[in-house]
Sequence to fold (124 residues):
Amino acid sequence: MIIEDDDVMVVGQPTIGTKMQRVREVVGKQQKEIAIELGVTQQCVSEWERSASIKKSSLNKYAHALGVTPEAIVNFEERAPMSFFTNCEFSGNAATSNGSLFQNNVSPELISLFEKFLSELKKK
Fold:
């Protein structure tokens, strides 16, 4: 569930804050780094990451500091990388899934984020 108005973004479970935190972890940045880059306190970043809603302008700034789009955060799903990469074999810009060939229409940014996520899982 995603609810948005002109100024605020609310995402169901997991919350927008949880998604922000996970994307930050996958990207490999600390709250302190984000806070310094945005000119806010680390406590402010921590509050965002615990929140169920966030102002769109704050989400945009946070995403920019991570080098991703706000949509990448809002649409981030823990299971998506596993399901996507488990069911596909890649060859150049095409992927094979269940014997059928299809063009890889996933953004390079999202693929990069998924690859970082998978490497984090392998470390655990």
